[in-house]
Amino acid sequence: MKYVTFLRAINVGGHAIIKMADLKKMFEAAGLENVQTYIQSGNVIFEAEEAVGQSLAKQIERQLEKAAEYKIELFVRTMQEVQSIAQKCPFKVRDGEIAYVTFLNTMPDQQIQQALLNLNSESDEFAFRGSEVHTLRRDREKSIFSNNFLEKILKMPATSRNLTTIRKIVEKYA
């Protein structure tokens, strides 16, 4: 089965720098096959025996922590799930707007979800779909959106990618 892993906070702002060739080797050392990376922001595509997402994620996290010597949060999805995410954006994106997908490992409770939804504005709109938060950033200058902002509101680790990146991963690797 083909999977995509989205790593949190690597190669951002000069922190947690990992070369993609090294990241590929780390995944191969975990016994994963046909490992490929996509751009420098920690997107890894690989094949593995069919497994439950969270147990596979924990196995990869342990291997990466051992190799990198620090904890790296990651979010594993099947390629089929990533295809669905790419196709089912809840927003109609217009020129000048950017859609983002924020990956979570568990859904926050209803109260926390509502706290984020209450922040919908002319600049930003948020929606929950499955284990992801979708964001439409309409006005970059007035936007409150950032991955750190979402982590504070949701009270959990997360990692964000723009929808264009998600769609390119699907085009190239599905």
Molecular structure report:
With 174 residues, the protein is of the alpha+beta class. It has two domains: 2-81, Alpha-Beta Plaits (2-Layer Sandwich); 88-173, Alpha-Beta Plaits (2-Layer Sandwich). The chain contains six helices and eight strands. It has helices at 20-29, 53-68, 79-87, 110-117, 147-154, 163-173; strands at residues 2-7, 33-38, 43-47, 74-78, 98-103, 124-129, 132-137, 159-162. Strands 2-3-1-4 form a four-stranded antiparallel beta sheet. The protein has a four-stranded antiparallel beta sheet with strand order 6-7-5-8. Helix 1 (20-29) packs across helix 2 (53-68) and helix 3 crosses helix 6 (163-173). The radius of gyration is 16 Å and the shape is globular. The mean pLDDT is 89.
What's the arrangement of secondary structure elements?
Layout: E1 2-7, H1 20-29, E2 33-38, E3 43-47, H2 53-68, E4 74-78, H3 79-87, E5 98-103, H4 110-117, E6 124-129, E7 132-137, H5 147-154, E8 159-162, H6 163-173
